[in-house]
Specification:
By secondary structure, the chain is mostly helical. It contains 19 helices and 4 strands. The protein has 2 domains: about 220 residues, no CATH class; about 160 residues, Serine Threonine Protein Phosphatase 5, Tetratricopeptide repeat, CATH 1.25.40.
Length: about 425
């Protein structure tokens, strides 16, 4: 991993950890649980700070007696701090008024201890904890309303930055989507500037492994695309005038943005479909060569597709399942021609949902898959198949521009070059 430092508004120095594959896959679940345990020296169990859902109702202070001295119950304090971390700025203010436990020295001490323990392995989380510890200390010294009234603009900027860091630390893409829907206040110019700054720093960094650097650049670039895409969708949906409140509008924009970025499985999936996904992953990993499990995976996803259609699941989920069917069929090496034709039928299902206007990135991905299939297609006229492949790859380049999707653009250009050379040789 590579460390970068940049400055955010109000002269707050932030050190940000950028993973090598994806910026938002900051920790695996086991690593987070292990980190939580180290963050909580008083307990041998994983800390609720990372493992307990947000508390719906404010928790009242629970006092226990230890050695003749009254101290806040650590379990209640951890849960209360977790709820405080997840709250929006107005909710934080309200919680401070109704939850005296947050105004105790123990609350500040616990946050600082957790921040120190998390510093080496999860910098984003440590930054959030340290910021909140400082905020609680200021409120203890100056009072709740004076701090929030006099510094509301500054606080909003700082809270936005720290929520942004929490967003980057979510363990899965779905968790990332849910967190952003819970905290749409992250969608600010400040956060976009931070992402742009990260991109520039990664691009300018001197790294020993050029491929690793390119992967990191692409990861940040795609995240910046997601961020800008969601904000543009908010503006577009607001212009339609079909929503009675901004919350519903923003939630839809976030949902569409994530589907465009990572496909229909960004929606909440039923338990049976999640099990199917896990079975597919296990099959892929069970053999060294993908063709060895291709037929089994294709059958698995075809059954899932029929069930999804009968259950009237969201069309985006159906499209993603159809894409998984194609992916499995594309790995088949024996009896390829029938597999190719069935694969084309399933890509057609995808295109009915992933349109260029609504889901341009997914649409371009399907165009690339179509191009790959037509290039290798056995059935039909070879020259006509190559022309169809060229048309599909060329269409994808309407979305895959060099500035926005440099890696996808380069790969598509390379595939086009190979086809042109093949056509010339034929």
């Amino acid at each position: 991993m590579v460390w970068f430092s940049f400055f955010v508004p109000n002269s707050t120095s932030v050190t940000h950890e950028l993973p090598s594959v994806s910026i938002i896959l900051a920790q695996t679940i086991p690593e987070m649980a292990s980190l939580a345990q180290r963050c909580d020296p008083a307990s041998q169990e994983p800390s609720p700070l990372l493992t307990t859902p947000p508390v719906e109702q404010p928790l009242l202070p629970v006092i226990t007696t230890t050695g003749g001295q009254e101290e806040p119950d650590p379990e209640v304090l951890r849960k209360t701090l977790f709820a405080f971390m997840q709250a929006t700025l107005p909710e934080k203010r309200a919680m401070l008024h109704r939850t005296p436990l947050l105004l105790t020295p123990a609350a500040v001490t616990m946050l600082n201890e957790m921040a120190q323990a998390a510093q080496d392995q999860q910098t984003n989380l440590a930054q959030v904890m340290k910021f909140l510890a400082d905020l609680l200390e200021r409120v203890r010294q100056e009072g709740i309303d004076p701090v929030f009234d006099e510094g509301e603009h500054v606080l909003r900027s700082e809270v936005s930055v720290n929520l942004y860091l929490q967003w980057l630390s979510t363990p899965t893409y779905q968790d990332s989507r849910r967190f952003l829907q819970q905290h749409p206040e992250i969608l600010t110019d400040v956060s976009e500037t931070l992402l742009q700054t990260e991109l520039e720093l990664v691009m300018q960094a001197q790294m020993n492994d050029p491929q690793q650097q390119q992967e990191q650049v692409e990861a940040v670039r795609l995240l910046l695309y997601l961020f800008r895409d969601i904000r543009a969708r908010v503006v577009r949906l607001r212009g339609l005038g079909q929503f009675s409140d901004d919350d519903s509008l923003t939630r839809l924009a976030i949902l569409e943005g994530y589907v465009n970025w990572k496909g229909g499985f960004m929606l909440d999936l039923p338990a049976w479909l999640e099990k199917t996904r896990q079975k597919s992953v296990a099959l892929r990993r069970s053999k060294k060569q993908l063709y060895e499990t291709a037929s089994s995976r294709a059958t698995l996803w075809q059954k899932a597709l029929k069930r999804a259609q009968s259950k009237d699941l969201a069309v985006e989920i159906v499209a993603e399942i159809a894409q998984r069917v194609w992916d499995a069929l594309d790995d088949i090496t024996a009896n390829q021609s029938p597999a190719q034709e069935v694969g084309l039928q399933h890509l057609d299902i995808c295109l009915r949902v992933y349109t260029e206007e609504r889901y341009p990135y997914q649409w371009a991905l399907i165009q690339n898959n179509l191009g790959a299939t037509y290039r290798e297609r056995i059935l039909g006229n070879k020259a006509e198949n190559l022309e169809q492949a060229i048309a599909c790859y060329t269409a994808a380049l309407r979305v895959y521009t060099e500035d926005t999707f440099s890696v996808d653009w380069a790969k598509t250009q390379n595939r086009l070059a190979l086809i042109y050379n093949e056509r010339k040789g034929g």
